[in-house]
Amino acid sequence: MFSTNLNPGWKLWSIYLIAVSLSIGWGIRGNFGHEYGAEFAGCLAAITVALLSGREDWRNRIPYFAFFGALGWGFGASQSYMQVLSYTESGHALTQWYGYMAVFLIGFMWAALGGAGTAFAAVASRERLVAIFKPFLFIVGAYIVLDLIEDPVARWLQPNAGFDTNTFRHKNPLYWFDAYYLPAFFALIGCCTYDLYQRKGERDRLRLPLFAAAGAFMGWVIQLLLRSLGLDTKLASALTYPQGDPSYLNPLTGKPAFDPTNFLNNWPQWFGDYPQHIGWLIGLIVGVTVYFALYGKFKHGSSLFVYMAGGWLISFLALPVLGGNFFAEYGGIRMTPPRSDDWAGIIGVFSGTSIWMWRNNLKPVAVASLISGIIGGLGFAGMQWVKHLMLSFGSPRILGYEGILPSSPEFSAISSAWSKWQGQNWHSFLEQSYGFVNGIAIAVALAYIASRVKIHNDEDKPEVLKKDRWTRAFAVILVLMGLTYLNMVKNVSVWTEQLKPSVWTQTIAHPDGTSEVLPASWNVPFIGRLPGTDFLSLTPENWYTFTWLLLTIAAIVIVIRHYKTPLPIIPKSSLAKGQLIFLILLWIMVVANFERALTGWNPSRLLTEWVIFVHAIIATVLVLLLPKEQEAVVIVEEEDYQPIYKKLWVKAIGVLVLSSVLFLVSNRLIYHYPEYDKLNHSAHHTRFGPDASWRTKPNLKNGEGH
User: Fold this and answer.
1) For position 463, what pLDDT does the model report?
2) How many CB atoms lie within 10 A of CB 672?
3) What does the alpha-carbon distance between residue 374 and residue 651 come to, in Å, rounded to a whole number?
4) Fewest CB within 10 A of the end CB: N or C in the chain?
C-alpha cells in the first residue's frame, strides 16, 4: 500500500494516527481546559510518535516521550485565545487581520513548545534525559509551596479584597495582567534551590545572604534617594499606564465612562498599596540574581528551566509591562486586553528553550520545534477560517448585512432551514480539527528528524535500564495516575452543579442570619456512622482524591514488585509496553470525558463526545495494527542545521503574512460587513477603533472582570 523506502513516520497512516490521537486529546482538552488538558493531548500524541517511528531506541524511551511531550504541550494552554477568535469575527478589517495573525501566533507558540518537548525526548542523550528529573522535582516542590502560600499571602496583603479565581480575580493584590508570573518566578526559585543543593559543602553558598542583603539595602537607599529628590513619583508615572482609556465617553451621557482612579495599571496591585516596600524588594531580587549569575552552576539540565522561566519573565516585562508604556493610547502591547497576557511569557519560554537547545548542541530539537510551530500556527488560524466559511451557510449575520430583515418571511425561511446547521457545536469542531492539524505538525516535525539524528545505542541494556528505571517509573505513574487525576477531579465540580444538590452540597446557616453553600460531607462507611464520629467524613472531592491516592499506591506497589520479579501481565517488548500505556491513557480519559458530559447531555454533544469515541475506536485499531516489531529506518545525519533553521524562519513569516491576508480578504468577501459604527460591538470583541473592547470593557478595581 505504501512505498517500502519510506521511513515509517512518513507513511500516511502513521501521520493520520498521530493526528487523530492529538485530535482526540484536543477535543477532551476543550472540556477539561487549561494546561493539564493540553498535556494529555500532547502525551498521547508523543507516545504515538515513538510507537510509529520504527526506531527501537525511541520506543525504549516511550515513558520519556510521554513525560516531555506532555510538558511541552502544556505550556501553550496558559494563553488566552477566545477573544482573538472573536476578533476574527468582529467585522472590523484591521481587528480581523490582527485577530488572524494573533491566532497564528498563539497556535505557533503552542505547537512549537509541544514539538520541542517531544523532540527533546527523541534527541537528547539518555544521561541528559535522566538527570533533568531531579531539578524538575525541585520545581514541583516550589509549586507546592506557591499553592500553599499564594492565597494566604494575598489575603494578608489586602484582607478585604474579595477576590476569587474567576470573576473577581483582578481584585487579588498579586494580580498582574492576569498572567502566570508567579509560577515562572517560583520555577526559578526551584532551580536556584536545586543549585544550592548540588553545591552543598561549597563556601560560595554562604555568600548568598550577603548578596541578598546588599541588594535589598541598595534598593532601599535608591528609593529613599529618589523620594528625597522628588523623583519617585515622576519615575512611577513614566513607568505606569492605565489599563483602559480615561478619555472614553459614555455614548449615552457624553461624559467620561469610567473614573480614572478605578483603572488597573501595568504593575501588581500591591505596588500601589505598599509602595514603600518596592525598592528593597526589587533590590533583593537583583542581589540574588547577581549571586546566581556569578556562582550558579545549574547542572543536570536545570539550566533549561532557568532559560525557560527567565525567558518568561524577561519577555513579560519587556512587552506588556514596560513596552506597553509607548503604546498606551492603543491599549499597550497587549494581545487581548483586558484578558491574560501569558502569550508574552510564552514567547519568552519559546525563545529561552530555542537558545538553550542551540547552545547545548540539540539543534534538531530547535528545528523540529519550528516546523511544528509553523504548521500549528497555520492550523489554528486556518481552522478558524474554515469554521467561518462553514458558518456562512444560512448565516443570520449575512442575511442582515444583505438587507433581509429578521421580520421578513425570507429571513425566517432561510434561517429556519439552516438553524440546526448553525446550532451545532462549532467550537468543538474548531477544537478537534485544530487538534488534528497539531497532530500533523508533530508527526511531520518528528518524522523529519527521525532520519537525521543518530541512533541512541545500548539504551536497552539491563544495566542501563536498571540504573534509570526510577525515572521511567516516575514518568509512567505521573502520566497514568497524576495527569489523569488532575483532569478527572474537575468532574466533581460538574457533578456538584448538575446532579441532585441536596446530595452534593450542604447549606450552612450563620448566626448573623446569612447562609453559605458548601460541599457535602459524606461519612466513612460503617465506623463513620457510629454515634460521636461526625468527624469521619470527607467532601466529594476529597473522597475522589483519597480513592485515586489508593489507586496510585497500588500502581507503585505493582511497579516495585515488577522490578524485583517481572510480572507476566507487563510485556517485555518496548512496543507492547508503549501500546499498553497508550490504550490505558486513551480510554481512561475518553470515559472520563463522557461521564463529565453525561450529566448535562444534549444532542449537540454528539459532535464532541460521539466523535471522540469513534476516533478512539479507530486509534485503538490502528495503534495495534500499524507498528511492527522490526522496521527499517534509514539514518542520514544532518551536518549543519543553521541554514535549515534560517529558511524555516523565512517560511514562518511568509506563511503568517500570506495566510492572514488570504483569510481576511476571503472572509470579508463572503460576509459583506457594514461600516464600523454599524457593527455589533457587544457581540464581538474589537482590538482597535473608538469602541475597542479594552476601551469599553476594562477590568476595574471595583468591577467584575472579563
Assistant:
1) 67
2) 11
3) 8
4) N
C-alpha cell at position 116: 520541542
Helical (H) or strand (E) element with 507: strand 505-509
* Closest by CA position to 394, among listed 429, 367, 421, 374: 421
Q: Tell me the average pLDDT of the chain.
A: 93
Specify whether the CB–CB gap between 26 and 431 falls below 8 A: yes
What is the number of residues in the chain?
706
How far apart are the C-alpha atoms of 62 and 51, rounded to whole Å? 8
What is the per-residue pLDDT across 53-71, written as a single tens digit (0 to 9) for each?
999 999 999 999 999 999 9
Question: Are the C-beta atoms of residues 113 and 35 closer than 8 Å to each other?
Answer: no
Burial class (CB in 10 A: 0-12, 13-18, 19+), 42: buried
Helix ranges (DSSP H) in 604-676: 609-625, 642-671
H helical segments located in 175-301: 181-198, 208-228, 232-238, 269-273, 278-295
Place 3 in a pLDDT band, splitting at 50, 70 and 90.
very low
Q: What's the maximum distance between 2 C-alpha atoms anywhere in the chain?
A: 86
Identity at 60, one-letter amino acid code: N
Using an 8 Å Cβ cutoff, are 381 and 664 in contact? Answer: no
Q: Using CB atoms within 10 Å of the CB of residue 213, give its burial: 0 to 12 exposed, 13 to 18 middle, 19+ buried.
A: middle
How many Cβ atoms are within 10 Å of 18's Cβ, its own excluded? 31
**pTM passes above 0.90:** yes
Give the pLDDT confidence of 255-308 residue by residue, as tens digits.
999 999 999 999 998 999 999 999 999 999 999 999 999 999 999 999 999 999
* Residue ranges covered by each domain of the chain: 1-124+362-469+612-673, 128-361+676-706
What CA–CA distance (Å, rounded) separates 23 from 706?
Answer: 29
CA distance 119 to 53: 12
Helix 574-598 to helix 62-75 angle, to the nearest 10 degrees? 40
Mean pLDDT, residues 28-38: 89
Q: Give residue 416's pLDDT band: very low, low, confident or very high (50, 70, 90).
A: very high
Neighbours of 139 (CB within 10 A): 21
CA distance 279 to 215: 10
Of 166, 109, 172, give the one whose Cα is nearest residue 335: 109
Answer for the pair 681, 696: CB distance below 8 angstroms, yes or no.
Answer: yes
Measuring CA to CA, how many Å separate 10 from each of 464, 575, 647?
A: 30, 18, 22
Residues 526-561: tens digit of each pLDDT:
887 777 777 788 999 999 999 999 999 999 999 999
d(CA 433, CA 387): 10
- Please give the Cα distance from 28 to 12 (Å, whole number): 24
Angle at 35 between CA 33 and CA 41, to 5 degrees: 80
Q: Are 57 and 571 in contact (CB under 8 A)?
A: no
462 preceded by a cis bond (ω within 30 of 0): no
Q: Tell me which long-range contacts 592-596 makes (C-beta under 8 A, separation of at least 24).
A: 592/484, 592/487, 592/488, 592/491, 593/27, 593/28, 593/31, 593/32, 595/491, 596/31, 596/32, 596/490, 596/491, 596/494
Please give the backbone phi and psi of residue 568, each rounded to the nearest 5 degrees, phi first.
-60, -30
Rounded Cα–Cα distance for residues 291 and 270 (Å): 27
Residue whose C-alpha is closest to residue 674's, from 83, 90, 101, 85:
90
Terminal Cα-to-Cα distance of the chain (whole angstroms): 53
CA dihedral over 689, 693, 694, 695, signed as positive or negative:
positive
β-strands 515-519, 522-523 pairing: unpaired
Pairing of strands 522-523, 505-509: unpaired
**Within 10 Å of residue 695's Cβ, how many Cβ atoms?**
21
